[in-house]
UniProtKB/TrEMBL annotation:
PROSITE patterns linked: LDLRA_2 (PS50068)
Lineage: Eukaryota, Metazoa, Ecdysozoa, Arthropoda, Crustacea
Domain Neurotransmitter-gated ion-channel ligand-binding: 465-546
Source organism of the structure: Portunus trituberculatus
Annotated compartments: Membrane
Paired cysteines (S-S): C424-C436, C443-C458
Taxonomic superkingdom: Eukaryota
The protein's name in its UniProt record: Neurotransmitter-gated ion-channel ligand-binding domain-containing protein
């Protein structure tokens, strides 16, 4: 049951169909709407379901697809696909051009036909392949073993078309893909409706002579079964199709003196068209409404009225076609309207029926009949009334009932009721004078409607709908316990150079936050991004601090904030019947009993007591913030210029029990991809991680000291200096002043290095590894000086006995040699311990 509840549109439209069944004895048929060129619907038929054993055989030589297609009058692409079927060996496509003429394609060979589909009417279209019955020259065995020649066939409204395409197929051992619309993302789908999709197998052309058969075998179900893979804006709905292939027509007489253009618009707003010569039957001439010789305008799109000189085609009362100026006004004109069209009333009046059908009165007049309401024309104009109450709405003038009108109450003429009465279908929008446009054309920045009304009342004021009581300081999170999440995505665009002396990091960050706000509805939202000003709604407050939560607070600079609502293809919308602009509001279905979030309201709809879900919308709102954050890293660089450091920035939501949650990953902490320069002057950036814990989000820069430069500029020269110092041990012991000179000079140079280093690198109140290095090296050098002094003092020691002289020299030499060995050991020990510190081993 749950699955069915999640489908608002389906339910609503199903209801409409139930109602339609009440009003007329129609049958409900599942129809798929392809809203624009990105939509498509595909299904795989497993091989064992389609092909009988040993296909092609005597009584099964042909395979094909039939469907009923209702294309929109305007198609967005020059070549769009209606349907295709494919196995590994062959791909068959059928499509239409922008002027709705057919083309066919087998593999890559395309063939254009002169036949065109009827726009906004059901067309029975079949296409397939059949084994060529008498192949004159069998295909050479060695080239294509078992390959057989197939010819393509196609039919429109049961009439076979002349196609000269074919393919050679080795075997039918594959599953068959059947697609409505394009199979690939780079080609375009047609815009319109499809039903009666069937895969057929048999002999020769498999065109049924009666299209009701297609509806019986329709592969589309409500809801669409799992085996259909939808892509883009495609949705299923239910309609009552009486006789889709041969729809009877009402002949309406438009009794006003109008020029071609205005009369055409009036006729089209009723969902009809001018009669063409072929359609002029006896019955048409009987409904002859004029004493003039010109009976009616007729359709011929070759010339459309512009200047006063332009002429347009007319039907003559006596038969045949003539021409007269398009601007000249005819006494009356005829309009053929398919039987069974559904007219809908949009607007804030709930006391009248929403749906009507066209009915013919006596004397050739017509009116609109709902289950309890009707819309009739009298001498004073159009009247909307109901049999349930005395409320009556009135329109002056005898035409112009279609479209967006200001209906006045008969009893209270001051009150204005803007209602839209239209024949437009689920993927259309009605302009003010009732012309149907594609929904995507509304508010797209281009004026398309003849009355230029499709770009009116657009923009963020209309986009965003909320109750009067909306308070932007109140949090939107409705659920009492659990899920109160702010979804985040954080990306680091630039990490500026970090100077160890300044100890501050500067990051350019892009943060996208997403949260649910059940109180906001979106009307007429576009696919993808819908921007609006952030101050209109509640937005999360986020504090930034350096280090941990208690660190110094960080103020962002260069602050760009945008709020938007992102709509994907899957977010089907609910058409708002009480919005005269026919808006759709993006809604998440709710149903009573699910955590008490939703309300169910019983509505008396169309005279039948039916319960209808009233939805609380749960739209996801996004906010993207781009800002520059400068903050102190507060690093303790005691291992400078070595070591690993972490420079942290913390984000805290200032809302009780609202938690961070990642949009993309559950790994905690996770690494952020950073493509910029990892060399940050004094440090190298190893990686950037994000750690989430409840309300706290921590961004950490993992830094490593960059000792390379210091190795050359500090460690190597100082070590060399020490070696020079040490080399004094190798001077003759008698050369005291020489030894002293060398070691002392080295000591002085080391001191100079040290003071230079402490002046030019990070100043800290504590010792850094580099300071320790110098100090120890100085100490060693001092030891060398002292050792030299001791060696000399031993050498020049006053002796009493001659035998002691040799002993004295020997002792001095021994000490010198001892130093020669001990000093390198000490130095090695120093380097060893130092390396251990530098590599973080201890
Ligand atoms: C073809 O003929 C065989 C037997 O003659 C029969 O079993 C089969 O159902 C037929 N198939 C079709 C598609 O008519
Ligand atoms: C299609 O129309 C073109 C030009 O209008 C014509 O030359 C051609 O013969 C027609 N083809 C068919 C098959 O009717
Ligand atoms: C099928 O094979 C025959 C014989 O090789 C060849 O003449 C014909 O052009 C092929 N047809 C297609 C559509 O490839
Ligand atoms: C579909 O796309 C392919 C590749 O871009 C192109 O070659 C082909 O002509 C397209 N088909 C139609 C009908 O435009
Ligand atoms: C088509 O078939 C349906 C039932 O299958 C039948 O009622 C109808 O009369 C048929 N129409 C035509 C034109 O044969
Ligand atoms: C219909 O038109 C014919 C030809 O102009 C005219 O003679 C006839 O009177 C008209 N009939 C009616 C009912 O107006
Ligand atoms: C329209 O409805 C009113 C009130 O129910 C009724 O009096 C009138 O006869 C209806 N008109 C038509 C043409 O059915
Ligand atoms: C519309 O009708 C009302 C009466 O119902 C009348 O007072 C008013 O003048 C009419 N307006 C026009 C523009 O005809
Ligand atoms: C950044 O922008 C937000 C939203 O516009 C605003 O509330 C905040 O005060 C701004 N911060 C700074 C430092 O400009
Ligand atoms: C909002 O976004 C989250 C995360 O992407 C998702 O789980 C949730 O279903 C979305 N809610 C709605 C109403 O789309
Ligand atoms: C990021 O770098 C730190 C420090 O080197 C390391 O501990 C951590 O494992 C790294 N994280 C990832 C995901 O590589």
């Amino acid at each position: 049951m749950e699955r069915y509840l999640g489908l608002p549109v389906r339910l609503l439209l199903a209801l409409i169909c139930v109602l339609a069944m009440v009003t007329s004895k129609g049958e409900c048929v599942v129809v798929v709407a392809v809203e624009n060129s990105l939509g498509s619907l595909c299904k795989t038929f497993p091989e064992d379901i389609i092909f009988p054993e040993g296909f092609p055989s005597k009584n099964a030589t042909s395979v094909g697809v039939c469907l009923l297609v209702k294309p929109e009058l305007t198609q967005s692409d020059s070549h769009s696909y209606i349907a295709s079927f494919r196995t590994t060996h062959v791909l068959v496509n059928v499509g239409i051009t922008s002027s709705i003429t057919l083309w066919l394609e087998v593999n890559t060979e395309r063939h254009h036909l002169n036949d065109s589909l009827k726009a906004e009417a059901w067309n029975m279209l079949c296409m397939g392949l059949s084994a060529a019955h008498d192949t004159p020259t069998p295909i050479p065995e060695e080239e294509h073993p078992h390959s057989k020649a197939y010819e393509m066939w196609a039919s429109l409204q049961g009439v076979t078309l002349d196609v000269s395409l074919g393919a050679n197929i080795t075997a039918w051992e594959e599953d068959v893909w059947v697609c409505v619309g394009t199979r690939t993302s780079w080609n375009a789908s047609f815009t319109g409706f499809v039903t009666g999709v069937t895969l057929r197998i048999g002999e020769r052309e498999l065109t049924p002579d009666n299209c009701s058969l297609l509806l019986d075998a329709n592969q589309l179900t409500m809801p669409l079964s799992e085996s259909w893979k939808t892509r883009g804006p495609v949705f299923a709905l239910e309609e009552d199709l009486l006789q889709p292939c041969d729809t009877p027509m009402f002949t309406l007489v438009l009794r006003e003196a109008w020029g071609y253009d205005k009369a055409l618009r009036w006729c089209r707003s009723l969902g009809g068209h001018f009669p063409i010569e072929k359609e002029v039957t006896a019955s048409l001439v009987i409904s002859n409404c004029t004493s003039e010789e010109h009976l009616s305008w007729t359709t011929d799109a070759s010339e459309i009225a512009g200047s006063y000189e332009a002429t347009c085609p007319v039907l003559l009362a006596g038969g045949g076609v003539g021409r007269r100026p398009c601007l000249s006004e005819l006494e009356c004109s005829l309009c053929l309207v398919p039987f069974g069209l559904r007219y809908t009333l949009f607007g804030p009046r709930t006391d009248f029926n929403r749906h009507y059908r066209l009915s013919e009165g006596q004397d050739g007049s017509f009116f609109f009949q709902g289950t309890t309401s009707n819309i009739t024309l009298s001498a004073a104009g159009w009247t909307l009334q109901s049999s349930l109450h005395r409320g009556k709405l009135h329109l002056n003038g005898s035409w112009g009932v279609m479209g967006r009108r200001d209906w006045r109450s008969v009893y209270n003429p001051q009150a204005s009721n803007i209602l839209t009465f239209t024949v437009c279908n689920a993927i259309q929008f009605a302009s003010n004078d009732g012309v149907c446009l594609r929904r995507s054309e509304r508010c797209d920045g281009y004026v398309q409607a003849p009355d230029k009304s499709d770009e009116k009342e657009c923009g963020s004021r209309r986009l965003l709908r909320m109750d009067e009581s909306y308070d932007s300081s109140v949090m939107p999170f409705i659920s009492v316990e659990g899920a109160r999440y702010i979804y985040y995505r954080l990306s680091v665009n630039v990490v500026k150079k970090i100077d160890a002396e300044e100890d501050s990091a500067t990051l350019e960050l892009a943060m996208t936050l997403k949260w649910e706000d059940g109180r906001v509805r979106f009307v007429d939202s576009k696919i993808f991004y819908n921007y609006f000003p952030c101050h209109l709604i509640w937005t999360p407050t986020i504090m930034m601090s350096a280090g941990n939560i208690n660190g110094p607070s960080v103020q962002p600079a260069a602050n760009i904030t945008m709020c938007y609502f992102f709509k994907g293809f899957k977010d089907r919308e609910e058409v708002q019947l009480d919005d005269h602009l026919m808006g759709e509001s993006c809604a998440e279905i709710g149903w009573v009993g699910r955590k008490g979030v939703k309300v169910l309201v019983g509505v008396r709809l169309e005279g039948i007591a039916l319960s209808r879900g009233r939805y609380v919308t749960r739209a996801n709102i996004s906010q993207s913030r781009n800002f520059l954050a400068s903050y102190p890293c507060m690093l303790r660089v005691s291992r400078y210029p070595f070591g690993r450091y972490m420079c942290k920035l913390t984000f805290v939501t200032m809302h009780h029990k609202v938690h961070w949650k990642s949009k993309d990953t559950n790994v905690n902490p996770h690494t952020i991809k950073y493509d910029g320069d990892h060399d940050l002057l004094d440090y190298r950036l190893e990686n950037i991680t994000l750690h989430v814990h409840d309300r706290v989000l921590t961004l950490t820069l993992h830094l490593i000291g960059q000792p390379d430069y210091h190795l050359i500029s500090n460690f190597l020269p100082s070590a060399l200096m020490f070696f020079i110092c040490y080399s004094s041990f190798y001077f003759p012991i008698a050369e005291f002043s020489g030894r002293m000179n060398v070691s002392l000079t080295s000591l002085v140079v080391l001191l100079a290095f040290f003071s230079q280093a402490t002046n030019s690198y990070v100043k800290t109140p504590y010792y850094k590894l580099i300071d320790v290095w110098y100090v120890l090296l100085l100490l060693l050098c001092c030891l060398v000086v002292i050792a030299n002094g001791i060696v000399n003092s031993l050498r020049v020691q006053r002796v009493t006995a001659h035998s002691n002289l040799a002993k004295k020299v020997l002792r001095a030499k021994r000490l010198n040699n001892g130093c020669k060995i001990v000093m390198p050991i000490l130095f090695g020990l120093l380097v060893f311990v130092f390396v251990l510190f530098a590599t973080d081993t201890i």
